[in-house]
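Hi all, posting the design record for the shared folder.

TITLE: backbone redesign
STEP: 1 of 1
STRUCTURE INPUT:
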């Protein structure tokens, strides 16, 4: 199954993607994670991407599409994949049409006030990308690999507002673009509550294909 997760930053796409990946045995492809890996290098490209990411802007389409195209050509994507954070512009969605057929687009919906609360308390493991909240992990150490957690630069309050504006302007038009393949889910409840209807939907879709 080839799946896109659409939704504002902080709506819970990453958490949902991990559950789908585990149960349906397909890789989660997070362009944010791919870019965070690039940023760890010491190159002019890494510095450029780091600057864009920390200000909450979007990496240019051409570079993003190339990165995804290369990742989707790997053998683990043959059976399917979950795109988490891509496409983020109509130009990226148009480019993706020429790379791969997409079975379904899951739109994760959450009110901006809750997103701001959740992102402000989000902590990320810099080693394995596991996501926590300061409420459920006050020690701020990764429960999987014991690495001290960090707050991403772009999860700081001043950048969150900008990221939500970027989503509204550049990414929300994709809701229309994919209106023929859209499954909507609210992520206002717990991660398991969010996942339940998605799992049922994907199981039915898988049985049909
Ligand atoms: P994320 O982890 O998905 O919130 O992504 C973190 C940051 O990486 C974004 O704020 C962008 O700067 C960059 N990024 C991730 N995915 C894309 C994309 N599809 N297009 C452009 N920039 C992206």
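Okay, here is what came back for every position:
SEQUENCE:
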């Amino acid at each position: 199954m080839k799946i896109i997760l659409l939704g504002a930053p902080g709506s819970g796409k990453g958490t949902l993607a991990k559950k789908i990946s585990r149960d349906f045995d397909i890789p989660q492809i997070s362009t944010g994670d791919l870019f965070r890996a690039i940023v760890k290098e010491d190159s002019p490209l890494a510095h450029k991407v780091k600057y864009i990411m920390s200000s909450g802007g979007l990496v240019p389409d051409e570079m993003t599409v190339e990165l995804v195209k290369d990742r989707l050509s790997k053998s683990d994507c043959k059976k399917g994949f979950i795109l988490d954070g891509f496409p983020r512009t109509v130009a990226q969605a148009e480019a993706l049409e020429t790379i791969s057929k997409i079975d379904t687009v899951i739109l994760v919906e959450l009110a901006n006030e809750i997103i701001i609360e959740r992102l402000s308390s989000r902590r990320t493991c810099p080693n394995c990308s596991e996501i926590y909240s300061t409420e459920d992990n006050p020690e701020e150490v990764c429960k999987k690999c014991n690495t001290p957690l960090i707050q991403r630069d772009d999860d700081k309050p001043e950048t969150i507002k900008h990221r939500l504006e970027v989503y509204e302007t550049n990414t929300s038009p994709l809701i229309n673009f994919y209106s023929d393949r859209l499954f909507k889910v609210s992520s206002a409840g717990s991660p398991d509550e969010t996942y339940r209807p998605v799992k049922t939907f994907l199981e039915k879709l898988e049985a049909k294909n």
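COMMENT: The domain at 2-194 is CATH 3.40.50.300 (Rossmann fold).
Let me know if anyone wants the other runs.
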